[in-house]
Automatic annotation (TrEMBL):
The enzyme's E.C. designation: 1.18.1.2
Protein species of origin: Aeromicrobium yanjiei
PANTHER family: GLUTAMATE SYNTHASE 1 [NADH], CHLOROPLASTIC-LIKE
Location of the FAD/NAD(P)-binding domain: 6-189
Cofactor: FAD
Lineage: Bacteria, Bacillati, Actinomycetota, Actinomycetes, Propionibacteriales
Molecular-function annotations in GO: ferredoxin-NADP+ reductase activity
Positions of NADP(+) binding: 197-198, 209, 367
Protein name: ferredoxin--NADP(+) reductase
Catalytic activity: 2 reduced [2Fe-2S]-[ferredoxin] + NADP(+) + H(+) = 2 oxidized [2Fe-2S]-[ferredoxin] + NADPH
Keyword list, A-Z: FAD, Flavoprotein, NADP, Oxidoreductase
Binding site for FAD: 15, 45, 360, 367-369
Family affiliation: Belongs to the ferredoxin--NADP reductase type 1 family.
Length: 451
């Protein structure tokens, strides 16, 4: 007879859902998985971290839906680990707990002026335009901020640049809520300057993201020749990676292309390292960069030459940072949970019984969806190796979890509740001639889901 296993997954993004899927399909165990998330909805950064004009990336939701329709997997939304329950509570009901909470906060950028008015973190902006329930309803666009700087050349940086460059009316074909549409109409940006510390072969965005910059008829993409360097280290990267080669090819095409005279422009600058956000009367008036040069290995060094750029807002897109989780170790330097292949380890390097991690909380905010799936497989393999050593829970029945949450007064949502909200948002979109319109307020989402 196969071993019966009760597992909780904290986090309903791709990392957590993949872990649940792999576990319930594993041979030799009869696994039942509950996925808990602080959002009332599943899908994590696929819902709240992907730009709304990226329907192709959102196609992954279809695959995740198939996983969550598995009766061996349950979803509990609007349940906040750390305040609603902690590890010792979960251990009453589960053999093991897998933390897949991802990374939601902006990584710090320690340069002078970064805290000036008009300086923002990209994650905060993303959560606003994606309609996250905990984001403010309005975005503080400066009425005269026609020139804006974006610091960082990952996919998030390009998403931010594109959302700032496109008109509000162009976004009406997407699922943005009304408050985001009204906010984008107040955006005065005409020139968005994206700054890379190194050269074109060292950027972190994907070829698809880069090509999509030019899909708007209202946007010119201008790659500036200054700093467009390919040293020997860059050539090695191009030879070793098809993706890097494609990115450099697209950038070279932009470099050679004449602007069409669009009203909005995205400028890409290479070998410019931001060193200070310039301010006046407490608000952003410029950005100072140090010109860099490649050193032959693909890394950059400063030249001692500085340049000031007149911009009225700055968005830092230098990476995400995970939140500390109650009751388990946390490495503040890496913003990850210390682990050995997915097993959580304590300060002495010993495994914390029954505690595991997967996704960005395990390895940091790097890699694409494919990495997330293989990462989850590694964690599940270790969990299965540990099955005979796991402490069985005192209350293993599924109904015990429902009763506990209800007894705590937690208005949790379920997969069936998500299906109700999903239908409601689609109906809102159909009434406006759109595919979907997101509901934003948390209490409204919970009310619809629990109706």
């Amino acid at each position: 007879m196969s071993r019966q296993l009760r597992v909780a997954v904290i986090g309903a993004g791709p990392a957590g859902i993949y872990a649940a899927d792999i576990l319930t399909k594993s041979e030799g165990v009869d696994a039942r998985v509950d996925i808990l998330d602080r959002d009332p909805t599943p899908f994590g950064l696929i819902r709240y971290g992907v730009a709304p004009d990226h329907p192709r990336i959102k196609e992954i939701v279809k695959a995740l839906k198939r996983v969550l329709s598995n009766p061996d997997i349950r979803f509990f939304g609007n349940v906040n680990y750390g305040s609603d329950l902690k590890l010792d509570h979960l251990q009453q009901f589960y053999d093991a707990v897998i933390f897949a909470t991802g990374a939601r906060a902006d990584r710090d950028l320690d340069i002078p002026g970064i805290d000036l008015k008009g300086s923002f973190g990209a994650a905060d902006f993303v959560y606003w335009y994606d309609g996250h329930p905990d984001a403010p309803r309005e975005w503080p666009f400066e009425p005269h901020a026609e020139s804006v700087a974006v610091l960082g050349v990952g996919n998030v940086g390009l998403d931010v640049a594109r959302m700032l460059a496109k008109t509000a009316d162009e976004q009406l074909v997407t699922e943005i809520p009304q408050n985001v549409y009204e906010g984008l109409k107040a955006n005065a940006a005409k020139d968005i300057h994206v700054f890379a510390r190194r050269g074109p072969a060292q950027v972190k965005f994907t070829p698809m993201e880069l090509r999509e910059l030019s899909h708007s008829p209202n946007v010119d993409v201008i790659v500036h020749p200054e700093g467009f360097e390919l040293d020997e280290g860059s050539m090695d990267s191009i030879r070793a990676s098809k993706s890097v080669k494609l990115v450099v090819d697209v950038l070279q095409n932009y470099l050679a292309k004449e602007p069409k005279g669009a009203d909005h422009r995205i400028h890409i600058h290479f070998c410019q390292n931001p060193v200070e956000v310039l301010g006046e009367d407490g608000r952003v008036v410029g950005l100072r960069t140090e010109v860099t040069e490649l050193d032959g290995t693909g890394n950059a060094r400063g030249t001692g030459e500085f340049k000031d750029w007149p911009v009225q807002a700055v968005y830092r897109a230098v990476g995400y940072r995970s939140d500390n989780l109650a009751g388990i170790p946390f490495d503040n330097n890496t913003a990850t949970v210390p682990n050995d292949g997915g097993r959580v380890i304590d300060i002495d390097g010993e495994p914390l019984p029954g505690a595991y991690v997967t996704g960005w909380i395990k390895r940091g905010p790097v890699g694409l969806i494919g990495h997330t799936k293989s990462d989850a497989a590694e964690t599940i393999r270790l969990l299965l190796e540990d099955v005979d050593r796991l402490q069985p829970p005192a209350n293993p029945d599924r109904e015990d979890v429902d009763a506990y949450l209800a007894g705590c007064g937690i208005e949790f949502t379920t997969w069936e509740g998500w299906e109700k909200l999903d239908e409601h948002e689609i109906a809102l979109g159909e009434a406006a001639g759109r595919a979907r319109i997101k509901v934003v307020p948390r209490d409204e989402m919970v009310q619809i889901s629990r109706s």
